[in-house]
Amino acid sequence: WDLAEFDMNVVNQSQLGLEIAERAFATGTVELIIDLGSSIVGALLRAGNPGSALEQAERFLAFGREQGIQVFVKTIQRAQARVLLDIGQYETALGLLKESLTASRLTNYRYGEMRALACLGMCYAGMGDDEEALRYLAQAEELAEKINSKMDVNLIRVDLAAVSVRLDKPDALDRKSTR
Question: Is the pTM of this model over 0.90?
Fold first, then answer.
């Protein structure tokens, strides 16, 4: 690959990720497949290809199950749930996210727990349950702060702001801005 001339927009990022994944699958490079899985699903979603994102999620899930790598399976399920949220399949996403949250807590995988909480918040927001959305997002924000994931703290605060504005609760925004 000539990365010097490679346009790194999300479409090209997802294509590059898929090409690397193909080589990883062909050579049985388990570690690389694990590292790439959720990133490729997310890039395909951001590139506007939810169908392809779901297809790749299923492929990575099958691989993770075949290899017996449960943390990887839950990570891919969380990425799959984000795609389902994007296409309005909230009930299916909710089930996957609850499984992911439980598994993350059982294995003490704090980052996975935080991401599952944030996704659950957005799932409830999509379902119109803004109070429940705020509850999950607040838990996710607190955990993101504890594990010092600054990028996630900022992303979660954007989601909190969006839900708060929809609920017409500007006081929730003031609390966040004082931190």
Answer: no
